[in-house]
């Protein structure tokens, strides 16, 4: 990989794009697993304990590194290691989250607000001391709508944002040897779109008969697709279903809301409060509202500024 000038995050984006194509891995792309890495590195944040989140890159150490919920993410970390080695000035925490947002846009999705400034823990002891017990904070695909509200509510997410974030299931697939679940959600799992929501509403889903955990299936264009119980909860719960219907009908709306919800996710818990975007994210989480439904903090800038490349506010 190439060395880029310190602070040149657009240069790092270009290096990330170079490793997206991975023949022989899943569907030939590291993009979906980069998104999952960014998500799982960030989704441990708690407003109550005020720990977890992407800052520190705690997944490099136990117990996060061996958490069953993170099985398979070593692939994503290893794909990024050459970039890290060539550019040691960027933290793992920044690289992981930047890889996620870069992958989403490269796969046809929206541009997501992102800022640098995450640091890395230097040791397992440092990670444990600061983060505490962050186990069992990620969504369990085998559960229901109440579970989703509990998990995402801990981070200050509304029903709208929960459904928007669930749209990440347009990407990638489950692996029986990792999560226990098996298969892709959509026919083209390396293209970001609103197809996931359309399939939820228009296909007949039946419980798969197999020796694995409960999941649902349908056949589209000769491909066996799957949905998890948490996916089905989005159309079984009327408050969630409203947003499924909106996103199935309007991909632009989904892209806008997903960009804000994912941008909020990767920012929560970052030990950086010297930017107006960071303050806006914290205010939105505390109020349990989407970013565009929150008034900017005193002295803040218009929200539109948060969507600029690298969120340079």
List the helices and strands and how they pair.
Layout: H1 9-18, H2 31-42, H3 73-86, H4 92-106, H5 124-131, H6 145-153, H7 159-166, E1 173-174, E2 183-184, H8 195-202, E3 206-207, E4 216-220, E5 223-227, H9 229-236, H10 238-249, H11 251-267, H12 276-287
Antiparallel strand pairs: 1-2, 3-4, 4-5
Strand order of the largest sheet: 3-4-5
What is the approximate shape?
A: globular
Bin the helical content: 40-55%
Report the strand count.
Answer: 5
Q: From the helix content, strand content and strand pairing, which structural class follows?
A: mainly alpha
| Backbone CA Rg | 18 Å
Largest sheet: 3 strands, antiparallel
Q: Provide the succession of SSEs.
A: HHHHHHHEEHEEEHHHH
N-to-C span: 30 Å
Share in β-strands? 5-15%
Number of helical runs? 12
Poorly predicted ranges (pLDDT <50, ≥5 residues)? 300-313
What is the typical, i.e. mean, pLDDT?
91
Please explain how this structure is put together.
The chain is mainly alpha-helical. 42% of the residues lie in helices and 5% in strands. The protein has 12 helices and 5 strands. It has a 3-stranded antiparallel beta sheet. It has a two-stranded antiparallel sheet with strand order 1-2. The longest helix has 17 residues.
